[in-house]
Automatic annotation (TrEMBL):
InterPro entries: GntR_C, TF_FadR/GntR_C, Tscrpt_reg_HTH_GntR, WH-like_DNA-bd_sf, WH_DNA-bd_sf. Coiled coil: none annotated. This is GntR family transcriptional regulator. SMART domains: FCD, HTH_GNTR. The lineage of its organism: Bacteria, Pseudomonadati, Pseudomonadota, Gammaproteobacteria, Thiotrichales. It comes from uncultured Thiotrichaceae bacterium.
Amino acid sequence: MPELEHPQSVSDLLKNKSLETAGSLSSQVFSILKELIISLQLRPGQMISEKEVAEALKASKTPVREAMIRLQGIGLVRVVPKSGTYVTPIQVNRYIEACFARQQLEIGAVRRAAVQQNWNANLQMESLIQKQVQALKAGEDEVFFQLDEALHKSFFEAAGVPGVSSLIRDSQAEVNRMRYLKRLHNIRREDAIIEEHQAIVAAIRNGSPDDAEAAMIRHIGSLDQEVEQLASHAGLLEFIEGLNSGRFKHRA
């Protein structure tokens, strides 16, 4: 079972964070809290006080409240009337639903991209894959997965429907939290991811929608494959149950 540090207070987690004067304050608060939840620094069931967040970030309550509303909208927090705002439990069913939505939308995107033939977008995708290779060699996990998200977003840009990527982004919070958990359990496949990305982009560049779809299915996998993978890692499911119930596991 992976080792986790004891959960910290919201104030402690935010003590080294600050907001930039330029840009949306609520978006910055949203991004900070989202990252803390996805990385399990804010645990399922942990209370997030608007007042505490506002004081720690030296902000008014308005942008904090707006950020909380956005977090609730993507399923990372829930508001309990007359009680407070709490990090939601990790929900495997929501993860499976998000995988389904991503699969259907991205298959459509790569098929259309193969027909559209946006050469600038093709070059951008190839560049992102090369950067992923470099990040993998350097052991930069966070950079690797940021590039992964950028590449998947570029599929929609290559298809000429960039706005559709926001539909996936808003449903991916549980996917990203599960991705972090898989890394904790050493369920990793970065080398395979790069090869699969290369196959998708090659099919798009060659103008083959069928090959692009097949490569995307191999990359994302079917829902049955995803369920089988989760079922084969009983320790991961046990760990999720422990997190959701507040039984944080620590091993020397």
